[in-house]
């Protein structure tokens, strides 16, 4: 892993001009790798935050059959979410490790956007590498890219007219944000919420226990990620996002 270059332009503050956030990711624990710190700050400020995970993470534990792992990881996600103030966590029906970009994925995300009506949608970077050069995973890439298109789909009644028939009227998202992007533009100062973020990741006990022995522990990993963001933002700890303003 390499640290971000010191000559990157300063990041702008994320701001407070929104009321609701929908986090859309592929797996349980994806939100906990840094974004949960921002979520903790937002919920403490009275923002409504909900989670939508396209899979239940059933393929994530080598020593546990997917049928068992799905329930375990779903509960771990709910436990982790509650630590940062999120009580509404929903799951899709896509298969962990086999998420495919396409109309079905876009439709599912667009439906959830219309249902939740968020001002802000947060997802993950969909490029082949994260900001620190680590390779991105296939499900992450599919969900991130589909989220780009689903945000537009959610505002157009004619792309998925069946959603209107289901009772979901179009909804226009004001801000789309990507975590883990090498082209971050904004930051959330989370210096006072690091402990919650660590605890939120620690809630994934079965998943963490199955990771290789040399994989960083939650406290080390969270402080590393948020330290990179803080360095880029000029604060102690920060979560950095690539933000697209849409209105």
UniProtKB/TrEMBL annotation:
Single Gene Ontology MF annotation: hydrolase activity, acting on carbon-nitrogen (but not peptide) bonds, in linear amides
Protein name: LmbE family N-acetylglucosaminyl deacetylase
Pfam families cross-referenced by the UniProt entry: PIG-L
Gene Ontology biological-process annotations: glycoside metabolic process
Species, as recorded: Pedococcus badiiscoriae
InterPro entries, sorted: GlcNAc_PI_deacetylase-related (IPR003737), LmbE-like_dom_sf (IPR024078)
Keyword Nucleus: no
Keyword Zinc: yes
Top-level lineage group: Bacteria
Keywords: Zinc
